[in-house]
Amino acid sequence: MLAGLAAAFYAHRAFLPIDAALVMVGALLTHASVNAFNNYFDYRSKIDVKTPKTPFSGGVDILVKGMMKPSEALTVCLSTLICAALIGVYFLVRLFNVLLPLIVYGAIIIVFYTPVLSRVPALSEIVAGSGFGLMGLGVYVTQTGLIDAAGIAILIPITILVALLLFLNEFPDAEVDRIAGRRHIVILLGKKGSAWLYVAGEVSTYASIILAVAVGAAPLPVLISLFSLPIAYKAGRLTLKNYNRTSDLVPAMGSNVLFILSTITLMACGFAIASLV
User: Fold this and answer.
1) How far apart are CA 122 and CA 184, in angstroms?
2) 215-245: string of b/e by CB count within 10 Å (b at 16+)?
3) 62-82 pLDDT per residue, tens
4) Residue 173 pLDDT level (bands cut at 50, 70, 90)
């Protein structure tokens, strides 16, 4: 969200504080809804009972341990989705044509990600990444009313980064996911090949940022995103070394989270710096 706001201010000097607050709340609600749906459907399929738990993967035990009833969890899913939809309607009144495809796509992946889309071969990582990439683009659109080069410069790297977040977290769950009928990339490609693909994704992230600056879609200060390279290197090195050992892969998963959050934060800072100079 911050990256989208910073890009909007840089490109168009646009900042609407009420809209920014509303879209932030909407983003939190949609994130909560998709996670709640994921937990609900994973409980129904019994995946959460079987997956090995790490600090970054394996789901949660709230339903498994009976801390919440499935009906209560479904209520959380639907209530957060409805509240997010109300915020979406507010923005659609003003920006119908440009926002409608983004909002419809978001609603589809929230509800159908776990029971349907995760079973389509090699689709789950793309869906998750694009969902968050479109959050960044969406906040940009609510501020500017446009989809242009600066917005795309936010969309692409965030999409890749969040796809990498899910991708690496799938390694420990691969066998259980396969039995449950999921067909994500780790299952299809194998862990060794997926480890190399993860590194390629890291490289693609930085390449997309450098390209955005090279073509003028993003300003030069956005290159401070490259300061996260040491964290990315650590995550990639540990993944290549430990892809088949869950306990040893956990540090790589932690570095992956830091790599993703720091890169997006640095992108936001780069756009903000360019707005001031």
Assistant:
1) 5
2) eebbbebbbbbeebeebbebbbebbeebbee
3) 888 888 999 999 999 999 999
4) confident
Token look-up 């070394």 returns 241
Has this prediction a pTM greater than 0.90? yes
Q: Quick one: average pLDDT of 103-119?
A: 90
**CA–CA distance, 198 with 227 (Å, rounded to integer):** 19
What is the percent of the chain with per-residue pLDDT over 70, rounded to a whole number? 100
DSSP string, 150-170: HHHHHHHHHHHHHHHHHHHHT
Whole-angstrom distance, CA of residue 273 vs CA of residue 275: 5
Sorted by where each begins, the domain ranges of the chain are 2-276
Instruction: State the burial class of residue 155 (Cβ atoms within 10 Å of its Cβ: 0-12, 13-18, 19+).
Output: buried
Number of H helices, E strands in the chain: 11, 0
| Token digits of residue 193 | 């090949």
